[in-house]
Structure formats: structure tokens, C-alpha cells
Amino acid sequence: MSTFTWFSGRSPALTEQQIERRQQLAETSTLDERPLQQQRFVVLDLETTGLNMRRDQVLSIGAVVIDNGAIDLGQLFECTLQRDGHQASASTLIHGIAPSEIAKGEEPAEALLAFMEFVGDSPLLAFHAEFDQRMLARALKQSLGYRLQHGFFDVAEIAPLLCPKASPNLHGLDGWTQHFGLQVLQRHHASADALVTAELALILFSKARQQGIDSLPALQQQLNSRRRQRAHSI
Q1: Tell me, what's the pLDDT at 93?
Q2: Which of 11, 110, 140, 234 would staple 146 via disulfide (CB 3.0–4.6 Å)?
Q3: What mean pLDDT is reported for the chain?
């Protein structure tokens, strides 16, 4: 790898090779009419230093792939990011990532480039996706000068849309996994949370097809309609 580093104003410092990789990242595609079972989705979970989307940092990325209606265990992504000066905090008790692991992690630009290469042009799924989307977008901008434009779908929003008779108290991932009898190997671990979110998504996609919602544009339309209804009821 070239050791020559580019500096441009306030942009992040990247090697020539990293700039070339950034330029080659897949462009996001518009939502198409293919059946959900024929889509490739990347299911994402992040562990972070905290919940402040303007200040906290991404510590680890876990992701699994849904492809052709099944979880493809041959396509997994897991990475811990190096963060200089990181110290244990209250969030360490939740995610369990020790400062020593962070110190040995991947350099952020390398980790984020590898992740976006893994994603390609696929839409992303997450549980409470707004948090993951905003944290990932800020990390990509800070470390790569890259603007995230991929479609993001929130499994926490899809679940009540497709399961209107479920208890209105089902808000968290734990509640929905218990509702469907799913087994969680380890909570607050990025890869484990991504895997159970993918399992939940497959159940929901099956319910979507049964309800005549069998494409991403159709799903997006139903989500938008539900948002408008909820806004009018407030």
C-alpha cells in the first residue's frame, strides 16, 4: 500500500489506495419491483460508545446477509474499530467491548471501506434503524468523506405494520424475538443482534407476502401510509 496520504482542507486523510476504493464503491440503486424473496439485504447492528448520535462513536459493526429468501451464513461481516484514547464507560457494561479490544481494532477508514464493499448496492435493515443509519452515516463522513445514500428499512417499524394484532407494548428487539419464539445467542453483541434481526425480518417478509406486499416499493408505500395515519392521530 502506498504510504502517501492526501490532505484536502478538513477532509479525512486517506491513502491513494483508500481513495481509489472509495471511488469504486457501488452506487446505490433505486428500489425495484423484484419480489422480496429475490432481494439481497444487509442486516446491520452497531455497538457504540453511547446513544448520543452527534458525539458518540461506532465501536463495532456486525452484519449478515439475506439473499434469495434465506440468511446466507457464508456472507458475514464483523469488525471492531480502533478508537484512540477510548476508555471504559457505562456503555462498556452493555456491549462488553473492553478498551484493549478497541486498541487492537481495525483502523476506522479500513473497517468502513471493507463494510461498504461488503454492502455493495444492497438496501440495509436494522432494528431501530434511525440510530444505526445516523451513526453509520456520520462515521463514513468523518473517516472517508463518503455520503451514505443506501436505502434503510427499520424492522422495528415493519413489525407492527405487518402484525397489527400484536401487543402495542412490543417495542424492543427482545419483545419481538420473544413474540416469535426466537433464540438470541448473545444480546448487545453486533453480530448476534444482526443475526436475530435477520431472522425476525424473514418472518416479517413472509407475512408481507401473505398480505400482498411483495416488493420494496410496496413495503415503503405501506410504511409511508402508516406514518401519515399516525401523524394525523396525534
Answers
A1: 39
A2: 140
A3: 88
H-state helical runs in 81-172: 92-95, 99-103, 108-119, 129-144, 155-162
Question: CA-to-CA distance for 9 and 25, rounded, in angstroms?
Answer: 23
Residue with cell 459493526: 61
What's the rounded Cα separation, in Å, for the pair 130 and 39?
Answer: 22
Q: Distances in Å between the alpha carbon of 199 and those of 1, 14, 185, 193?
A: 39, 37, 12, 10
Q: How many domains does the chain have?
A: 1
Integer Cα distance of 234 and 229 in angstroms: 9
In a domain, 9, yes or no: no
* pLDDT tens-digit map of 154-200: 999 999 999 999 987 777 898 999 999 998 766 657 888 999 999 99
> With the C-alpha atoms ordered 177, 88, 63, 134, is the resulting torsion angle positive or negative?
positive
Asked if the structure places residue 68 within a domain, the reply is yes
Instruction: Report the alpha-carbon distance of residue 110 to residue 116 in Å, rounded.
Output: 10
Contact between 176 and 163 under an 8 Å Cβ cutoff? The reply is: no
CA atoms of 42 and 99, how far apart (whole Å) = 28
State pLDDT tens for residues 65-111.
Answer: 999 999 999 999 999 999 876 555 545 435 557 777 888 899 999 99
- Residues with Cβ within 8 Å of residue 57, at least 6 apart in sequence: 48, 49, 81, 83, 139
Compute the average pLDDT of residues 124-138: 96
Domain range for 147: 37-233
Q: Is the residue at 1 inside a domain?
A: no
Assign residue 146 the CATH number of its domain.
Answer: 3.30.420.10
pTM assigned to the model: 0.88
